[in-house]
Specification:
Layout lengths: L5 H9 L3 H14 L4 H13 L3 H14 L3 H17 L3 H14 L4 H13 L3 H15 L3 H5 L1 H8 L7
Helix pairs in contact: 1-2, 2-3, 3-4, 3-5, 4-5, 5-6, 5-7, 6-7, 7-8, 8-10
Length: 161
């Protein structure tokens, strides 16, 4: 039996050798099944490889087991996005909403949440959220000139005067 190390997996991951990294991570998970970080790394690699169906149970377990703040933030986004790509829109909404509650300043979570709202046919909420993200994060001087108007209309998209 070959014993692998997390450093080997991380090095392979950094080199873009995600399949090889995941073989090691999978073996490490077998020996330390209660390590949320290992589950998160494995899920992220699966996700990057287009293996969303393989990824989501590992994201779920990583969140359940616990992660540090940065990894937890990434796990919420990864799991929510993965659910969305699999058509599991209600699960995506739940996870991304929880992520936004915990990380209210994370605009990436909000944008992925807006995509989920779109998939749930909640177009007004999706557009409002995207408009607010754009206004809050843009450095475009033309856009910023109309910041107040965009903020005003974001919540009134169906109104006419």
């Amino acid at each position: 039996m070959v014993i692998y190390s997390l450093n080997q997996a991380l090095n392979l991951q950094e080199e873009g050798k995600l399949e090889e990294a995941n073989k090691i991570l999978f073996e490490l998970i077998q020996t330390d099944n209660n390590n949320g970080y290992l589950h998160y790394l494995y899920a992220s690699n699966c996700d990057s490889l287009g293996k969303e169906r393989d990824a989501y149970p590992y994201y779920e377990k990583a969140i359940y087991l616990g992660l540090d703040k940065n990894d937890l933030q990434g796990a919420y986004l990864g799991l929510g996005s993965t659910y969305r790509t699999l058509g599991m829109y209600k699960d995506s909404e739940r996870v991304l909403s929880e992520g936004i509650k915990q990380f209210s300043n994370d605009n990436a979570l909000k944008v992925f949440y807006a995509m989920t709202l779109y998939n749930l046919n909640r177009f007004n909420e999706a557009t409002e959220l995207l408009l607010k993200c754009i206004v809050e994060t843009s450095n475009d001087s033309n856009l910023n000139h109309y910041k107040r108007a965009i903020e005003f209309y974001a919540t009134r998209l169906n109104e006419t005067w």
